[in-house]
Amino acid sequence: MQTGKDASVTPFHSQFSNMEDERGHNLLRKDESKGSDCREKRETRISKENLYMVLALWMERFPLQSSRVQQKFKKVGVVFVLPSDRVLAADCSRDGVHGVARVMVNHCGKLEGCKVFVSRKPCSLCAKLLVQSRVSRVFYLPIEPESENKGELARADNLFKVSPVGQSVFVPCVEEGVLAKDEKRLPEEITPDDIGECRDQLFKEWWSAEWIKRAKVCLPWPCLDDSMENQVESDFKSLMKWIAFVKAPMDKGVAFKKVKVTEAAEAAEVKCDRDAEHYPDFNMAFHMMIFAKMLARQTDDPKKGVGAVILNGTENKEVATLGWNGFPSKALFGEFPRASDNDDARETKFSYVIHAEQNALLVRNTKDLTDGVLFVTKLPCDECAPMIKLSGVKTVVVGETIEGSTPKGGELSYYLIREYIKEEIIACYQMETQKTPTKRLGSDPETRKKMKSSDGSGMDIGSQTAINFD
Ligand SMILES: [Zn+2]
Ligand SMILES: [Zn+2]
Q1: Ligand 1 center to residue 212 CA distance, Å?
Q2: Ligand 2 centroid from CA 464, angstroms
Q3: CB contact at 8 A, 359 and 325
Q4: How far does residue 410's CA lie from ligand 2's centre (Å)?
Q5: Does the keyword Metal-binding apply (predicted)?
Q6: CA 175: distance to chain centroid?
Q7: Which of 97, 157, 224, 443 suits 368 as a labelling partner, its CA being 20 to 30 A distant?
Q8: What is the pTM of this model?
């Protein structure tokens, strides 16, 4: 799990693992001594804490964020995790309100004991609020703080010093094994170059070598020397690569098109016209689908990972909940083959897995999901569809092409969602991937120019390609 080297970079990692799932963790530790073989089979996925941190970072790109709040403060993405290990909120700075402050106002009374993942070291206002709300600990990435003003940084540190709330710089790290596994699952048309390019773009957006040089004096980080700097930089790069595995294929160009269900032969057939309606907010769909796909990689069932996230509110969209498919929390590996690739275990584990949509609905931070939008990586099954309908969600955006799919797939069936689409109870959009956009993109000078001028934002690129390939 953690090598000695990592532990010296960030002692919080190992501390975390114990907090996360004590029983499962202890079991893993025992097995480690038996050799790497059985380890490889079960836990090759990003740690939950790294996932929360990357989601916080990704929320900086939420389409409704304001790039700067009150001018001198950088945008910040936040994820609050309840003591029960459920995500309470994911948000970012917007509407002139700091990310942390938004969660404080929207979820007051629920914050005590939360673990807080903020993309950047909080400013003194946010520190004040965090300390007052009695969260348990605040983690932030080693990237530039929300405010670089020295006085601000010192004030924030003083606030934490006099309170029981801990703050820690969090050095993300995705192990090689996890990256290697993700690489194997990439679609054929995605080359290592595509991944490298995407990773570098993300890295450039967030990493500043100049800042890390100053980090030792600006942060309570006594051990940051040259070799550690390099390690921290390379660990951060591994996280960017982890995002790139999801994002690079979507950068090739995707569209979110409305599907229809027609009464064809025996099975209701899902159809999508060439000129079908698009999901009205491409940037939002693009952003949230990456979010959902990142969640899917936390699954207990690597062969069928599903991620789901629900946005509610018509104008000021809020992340109401998120989930992935897995066994009941705190279940042991011995009880269920957590994160196992073993096919033999499939049948026995199948009916025990709690679907991503179900998990999301169980932990949502608001009861009212009227007009909510569900972004889910795969089409909801007959177990989940009635629950989605009941929750008030009216729109489902699916992260795969469902046109022509069959209503009976393996152990699960998908009749109800078809019925709801046909009866217009639910509007459903499918994500279509552009198969051969690379050449056409390159050959179109107009598109190239747009790509260059979009300041490295993949969302803009995606948006352009989607329009170009309609
Ligand atoms: Zn702030
Ligand atoms: Zn389901």
Answers
A1: 20
A2: 33
A3: yes
A4: 13
A5: yes
A6: 17
A7: 97
A8: 0.83
Q: Which one, of 175, 171, 86, 162, lies nearest residue 130 by Cα? A: 162
Look up residue 208 and give its amino acid: S
Q: Model confidence over 230-251: pLDDT tens digits?
A: 999 999 999 999 999 999 999 9
How are beta strands 427-433 and 254-258 bridged, if at all?
antiparallel
Each residue of 162-195: pLDDT tens digit? 999 999 999 998 999 999 988 988 988 999 999 9
Give 143 Cα–ligand 1 centroid separation in angstroms.
15
Give the environment of ion ligand 1: residues with CB less than 5 A: 98, 123, 125-126, 146
What does the block give as tokens for 36? 């790497």
- The Cα–Cα gap between 383 and 260 comes to 21
Closest ligand to C-alpha of residue 323 is 2
